[in-house]
Design a protein that fits this description.
404 residues, alpha/beta, Rossmann fold, Dihydrodipicolinate Reductase, domain 2, 2 domains, 9-stranded mixed β-sheet, 15 strands, 30% helix
Length: 404
């Protein structure tokens, strides 16, 4: 099969546009610090508030447009960073790709498997660069766990478990469009897509069969609702919003689950599970990876935490047999965001292979979306449909062979 290369026909500096100037748009600020010669020249947002934020965030020399269509027509850009709400991703990304504009698409790439496949098809047919911002792959804790696995310290991986304590869930996901399944599908897709992708990476395979379970257990009982049009999360976030039932000003529609879980069989036989809860007091994720010769587990998922390895038999030993410190930022993911943006820009400018294939992003959507269908259908198991082999081969040809 002949694989045609991604189309790269740009001159330095790369001209970058930002579409959607909400909370996540700050990732575009990393463009200026990256090694690739690139500059922000344009932004687009459909709201007056978003356009005002664009001028404040990116400077008065950045052209601001009222829609992505206007930016495509007048922006004269080589690449676009799409940080709009999830349900808009597919239409915007496809328009950009069809216009020959390289796309950085914030995760999840779409809220349905069908839309994800449509995006991949557009990128494949136009040979326009597509990159999905699964920045957690570049986090220090994930890189460390993968290094331990690749060194063979726990043998062959057989099971991966992830528990996600989303302590900020009430503020992050239940006061705006994230709480509305029409806009997000589910938080098992939206929030979990990072972790599903990492489970695939650490497990060395993609989900083949999935079953889900979940419920709206706390936030659905809160009657205090409010339309927050024009606001972003920083306008209402506070650690003082506790306990969870005391939250106020939730989105007018709240119909996504605040507790959800899924079990996965990967295509290489590895078994995996993922659980998330949006009303825990603490906010972090815990991975356990079990192999034929031991297991690893992270305690903390940012700088200051550790990954421990157990290789000898015995009762509970808190210290484990080996302990590795997690480096990087002690809160948030600015370091991973910088590495992610740097990888995208280098890919567009030089065709450099990436650590993440858009196929992997599609597989995260597939697992999360089908787990959601499962939990809403009484935990009926679903099999993940295969992607067109030509599209798979095309994207994998541009990805680091060591990556999944």
């Amino acid at each position: 099969m002949t694989i045609h290369p991604t189309r790269v026909s740009v001159e330095a500096p790369l001209r970058i546009g930002v579409i959607g100037v909400g909370q996540r748009a700050t990732i575009a600020l990393h463009v200026r610090a990256a090694a690739t010669d690139a500059t922000l020249v344009a932004a687009a947002d459909t709201t007056d508030d978003g356009r005002r934020r664009a001028a404040q965030l990116f400077g008065s020399d950045v052209a601001v447009y009222a829609s992505h269509a206007d930016l495509i027509a007048h922006g004269k850009i080589d690449a676009a960073i799409v940080t709009t709400p999830d349900w808009t991703h597919a239409a915007i990304a496809i328009d950009l790709l069809r216009a020959g504009i390289a796309v950085y698409l914030e995760k999840p790439m779409a809220i349905s498997l069908e839309d994800s496949d449509s995006i991949l098809t557009a990128a494949y047919e136009t040979r326009t660069p597509l990159y999905v911002g699964h920045n957690f792959r570049h986090s220090a804790v994930v890189r460390l766990m993968r290094e331990i696995i690749e060194r063979g310290e726990i043998g062959r991986v057989k099971a991966v478990w992830c528990r996600h304590f989303v302590g900020n869930g009430g503020d992050y996901y239940f006061k705006d469009w994230h709480a509305d399944r029409r806009r997000v599908n589910s938080l098992l897709l939206q929030k979990a897509s990072h972790d599903i992708d990492v489970i695939h990476l650490l497990g060395g395979g993609y989900t083949r069969r999935v079953v889900g379970m979940g419920a709206l257990m706390v936030y659905g009982d809160i009657a205090d609702r409010r339309d927050r049009t024009g606001e972003t999360m920083s306008d209402w976030f506070s650690f003082g919003n506790w306990p969870p039932a005391s939250q106020t000003g939730l989105n007018p529609v709240v119909d996504v689950e605040d507790v959800s879980m899924m079990m996965m069989t990967l295509d290489n036989g590895v078994l995996a599970s993922y659980e998330q809860c949006h009303f825990t007091p603490d906010y972090w994720r815990n991975y356990t990876v079990i192999g034929t010769e031991g297991r690893l587990e992270n305690l903390g998922d940012t700088g200051g935490g550790v990954v421990k390895v157990w290789n000898t038999r015995g009762e509970w030993r808190e210290a484990g047999d080996r302990e590795y410190p997690i480096t990087g930022v002690e809160s948030g993911h600015a370091d991973a965001d910088f590495l992610t943006m740097s990888e995208f820009l280098a890919h567009v400018a030089t065709g450099r292979r990436t650590a993440l294939s858009p196929v992997a992003a599609r597989q995260a959507v597939a697992a999360g979306a089908l787990a959601t269908s499962s939990l809403r259908a009484g935990s009926t198991p679903f099999d993940v449909p295969q992607l067109d082999p030509k599209i798979t081969a095309y994207f994998e040809s541009q990805t680091d062979a060591a990556s999944r």
